[in-house]
Write a structure and sequence with these properties.
370 residues; alpha+beta; eight-stranded antiparallel sheet; two-stranded antiparallel sheet; disordered N terminus
């Protein structure tokens, strides 16, 4: 199996640099009830990545059906103060945000406020998008809309902030990559537009909708659209070890603005696959392939990468935003979950997740956890 780290390309990142050779181990200790062999296996894989990839800090959680099997943090959340990373450290999660945006769209469909096969122009007529583009195409990256984070003005938007109208106007005036519905191309513009549609339909901000429909009902107290307090969050770094520029939340918006920690993402994963966020029919739609194979393998549903591991279906999404990378994988048959968060611009958490899955799921001794 070859997995794509969904969103790992520098779609929400404007900084690059050279890696700083720095490694260390810190954070919370292993809970006493956890199998020491599971912890040792995970620690070995993560510590190797920490050194080989020169990542400042990593937080990892393995869980099954919402129960954490093992959680640990490694390295530093702040290089200047040598603050160890903790399992409750909050990281920016970039494009994992798209899962939340897709779930909001499905909630609104369940309420009869929109339908995924509606034209984008039913909700955003002022921009003159091609009427053949539907919300379904936005959700599955099959609209052909040009990726706004690849526009030259995005760097200014990321630093100084930008209005939704400015972004949507630029996207609507850019040439399509392909005829809507005929191909797949990952584009943040799709989920930026979905965020604007959520606001148009509800009359409330995207952030307020997240709070109302997801964060408060699920008790996700460490997940937010706004940047978390500095005392609770890791510092993001470009791979030279220099603190990354913090992106204004208006630029990634509904495509990648959220922050979270490993325990909240475990809770989110459990809720999503167990009907606590959207209905069974909505989740089935979210996990239905768009009909196209993604480069590297797998396919894409509604805000969810679709793939397999050892012939078992998984949902997956990664994220990358200035100074942070993330990966989130859930097995659909039993809820086995692996979450990896880093505070490094060019960390490779997707490869790390693969190595953890191989170490646990392909181990005679540990496969019962998987």
């Amino acid at each position: 199996m070859t997995r794509v780290l969904w969103g790992r390309s520098p779609i929400l990142s404007i900084c690059t640099g050279l890696a700083l050779g720095l490694a260390g181990c810190g954070g919370s200790s292993t809970p006493p009830q956890i199998s020491s062999s599971l912890g040792s296996a995970v620690d070995g894989v993560v510590n190797a990545a920490l050194q080989q990839q020169s990542i400042p800090g990593i937080a990892v959680a393995l869980a099954k059906n919402g129960t954490i099997l093992y959680a640990q943090a490694y390295g530093f959340s702040n290089l200047a103060t040598h603050q160890p990373a903790q399992t409750n450290t909050i990281f920016e999660i970039g494009s994992i945000t798209k899962q939340f945006t897709a779930a909001l769209i499905m909630k609104l469909q369940e309420q009869g406020k929109l339908h995924v096969d509606d034209s984008i122009n039913l909700y955003l007529p002022e921009y003159g998008f091609p009427p053949s583009i539907t919300l379904r195409m936005l959700l599955t990256h099959t609209s052909g809309l040009w990726n706004y984070t690849s526009l030259p003005q995005y760097q200014s938007w990321a630093v100084n902030g930008v209005s939704e109208a400015t972004v949507l106007t630029a996207v609507s005036q850019a040439p399509l990559e392909f005829k809507p519905g005929t191909s797949y191309s990952y584009s943040n513009s799709n989920f930026f537009a979905l965020g604007a549609i959520i606001e148009k339909v509800t009359g409330k901000s995207y952030e307020a909708n997240l709070q109302q429909y997801i964060f408060q009902p699920l008790g996700l107290v460490n997940t937010d659209y706004s940047l978390p307090p500095a005392t609770q969050s890791g510092v993001g770094y470009i791979n030279s070890g220099v603190p990354a520029i913090v992106v204004d939340r208006s630029a990634p918006f509904a495509a990648g603005a959220l922050s979270s920690n490993v325990s909240d993402l475990v809770a989110w994963d459990y809720a999503l696959i167990n009907g606590k966020v959207v209905s069974a029919d909505s989740f089935k739609a979210m996990t239905t392939s768009n009909g196209f194979t993604i480069p590297g393998g797998g396919s894409y549903g509604f805000g969810l990468g679709l793939d397999t591991f050892n012939n078992r279906n998984i949902i997956v999404h990664g994220g990358a935003i200035n100074g942070f990378t993330a990966d989130n994988v859930v097995f659909l048959d039993n809820g086995f979950t692996v979450v990896v968060l880093t505070n490094d611009d060019y960390g490779n958490p997707g490869a790390l997740v693969n190595n953890i899955l191989n170490a646990v799921c392909n181990s005679t001794q540990l496969s019962g956890n998987c």
